[in-house]
Amino acid sequence: SFCAVGDCSNRSNRDRVSAHKGRPFLRYLKLPTDEQEKRIWVTRMKRDVSSWKPGPSTKVCTDHFFLEDFRAEDLKRFGDLKYADHRGFTIKRMQIRLKPNSAPNTDR
Fold this sequence. Notes:
Elements: E1 28-30, H1 35-44, E2 59-61, H2 72-80, H3 89-93
Antiparallel strand pairs: 1-2
């Protein structure tokens, strides 16, 4: 996977750590299935909505969201882990979910 935001270079086969200090996760999230929400995401991804169409595997990395956009229970699970376990199996498999109506913030 790779991040489809226009100026982001994050790739899942290479980048495992967030560029944001203190954030112990980097995940790649699929675009919403709702067409209106998807249009908002594509616009915020610095893509031309009229010429670029996302495919079924298009993803945005979690670096383009504020911590407040993620579900509190998921953030708590990450916070409960020791940072030393960052590259461990447990963290690699942990899920991080967005709150409803969250959209990428590409000004970060």
